[in-house]
From TrEMBL:
Bilayer-spanning residue ranges: 56-75, 171-192, 213-231, 237-254, 274-298, 304-328, 340-361, 381-399
Record's keyword annotation contains Membrane: yes
Name of the protein described by the UniProt record: DUF401 family protein
Origin: domain of life: Bacteria
Length: 404
């Protein structure tokens, strides 16, 4: 009975999203559905909402999102990621690197328009060697690589917070590196190996110049990741430290910085995130999360497979953030001791599904840019995603073997 109620909550969320409403609307509707379907007392429901809004975890997450967006504005102002692409040209003179590493670097800017810049780079690198629909697939595929593991993406930060302390940001980033290598290799196997290496770029300066340019372009990102992964520094402190250092190194003046304070506050993102954290508390107060482990342990199907399928098809239908919000807490409650292996598997499933999801805006933009249908782009991406999912299940088994 509890599972049917939860399915009803999931249907409410999907219905709102399919009506092209913002995620914040879907989360608010789902919270109301939990209140009504689980017959929660009004006082309990209100207390859960307040608790979710004022918890330090919620405040910390909102602070991280603001600081990351602020840092993004600074990188855009100095053209850091574009300079990194120029450095790659000088270092490798490789069409394959241009078509893969450059979009992956640019993809660290979480903006829809980035896919258009990536499209121009991929066209220059692959014209005459790949068909139009294949170019579109390569563009979309590599532009989203950083979303798999990079510890500044909203979905990753929310998922880690919902893991109830079983997974840290640094631990997740390290655990995802093998899957990142697999992801890059799959693209090479299907498409990049058909492209000649030589890009015809004439390096007018020594290699040392381009290494320095690459380091100058990416030092902020490298510094942030090292602080988080190697030293266990909380994300908000790591990003703030990086911003302060970048102020000095980049010699930002007040006139340049002043617009960032307002533009870094993305109201839609902040409201959605706040509602997500409140919804998490409502689910916990309803007793859903604590009741599901016993249910899944009684099923003849392994719980990891059940959750993997839920995350994959749920992300295709409603987007990864929606399914993470609804199910990650339950999955972690049902996980064996540790939980990192299951967490990595589910994030891989959500990531893979988003490369096929019609609710993923970037896919539509990419398809339109190449003047092909969204269905054509998705069909070209399916084989790559299929191989990646198989690898993710294998990696899950390996992590479990070592006790994660």
């Amino acid at each position: 009975m509890e599972l049917l109620k939860l399915a009803g909550v999931f249907c409410v969320m999907i219905l709102v999203l399919w009506r092209k409403k913002p995620l914040s609307w879907a989360v608010a509707a789902a919270a109301l559905a939990v209140w009504l379907l689980f017959w929660m007392p009004a006082r309990t429901f209100a207390a859960a909402l307040v608790r979710g809004a004022v918890r330090w975890d919620t405040i910390q997450l909102l602070l991280v999102l603001y600081l990351i967006t602020f840092l993004q504005r600074m990188l855009e102002k100095r053209g850091c990621l574009t300079s990194a692409k120029d450095a790659l040209d000088g270092l490798f003179n490789s069409r394959r690197v241009d078509a893969s590493a450059a979009p992956a670097l640019l993809g660290m800017l979480p903006a829809v328009g980035t896919v258009l810049i990536c499209g121009d780079i991929v066209r220059q690198s692959t014209d005459g060697f790949l068909k139009t629909e294949e170019q579109a697939c390569v563009t979309s595929y590599y532009r989203h690589v950083s979303e798999l593991f990079f510890p500044t993406y909203t979905s990753i930060l929310i998922a880690v917070d919902l893991s109830a302390g079983k997974v840290s940001v640094g631990g997740f980033t390290l655990a995802m590196l093998p899957m990142l290598a697999v992801l890059m290799a799959i693209g090479w196997l299907f498409y990049l190996r058909r492209i000649p290496k030589d890009a015809g770029f004439f390096a007018g300066r020594p290699k040392a110049f381009y290494w320095k340019l690459l380091l100058r372009s990416l030092w902020t990102i490298i510094f942030t990741v090292i602080l988080i992964v190697a030293f266990g520094v909380p994300v908000h402190i790591a990003v703030l430290a990086c911003i302060v250092c970048n102020l000095l190194v980049g010699r930002f003046g007040w006139k340049e910085l002043r617009p960032f304070f307002a533009s870094a506050f993305e109201a839609r993102l902040m409201i959605s995130t706040l509602l997500i954290m409140m919804f998490k508390e409502v689910l916990a107060a309803a007793g859903v999360i604590s009741a599901l482990p016993a249910f899944f342990s009684s099923l003849p199907v392994p719980p990891f497979l059940v959750f993997a399928l839920i995350f994959f098809f749920g992300s295709v239908a409603a987007g990864s953030q929606a399914i993470i919000v609804l199910c990650m807490g339950m999955a972690m409650a049902a996980a064996a001791q540790g939980g990192l292996a299951l967490f990595v598997l589910l994030m891989c499933m959500a990531y893979a599904a988003m490369q096929l999801s019609p609710v993923h805006v970037c896919l539509a933009v990419c398809a339109e840019d190449y003047r092909i249908s969204l269905g054509t782009l998705i069909r070209k991406t399916v084989p790559l995603v299929g191989v990646f999912c198989l690898a993710a299940f294998g990696y899950y088994g390996l992590l479990r073997l070592f006790g994660f």
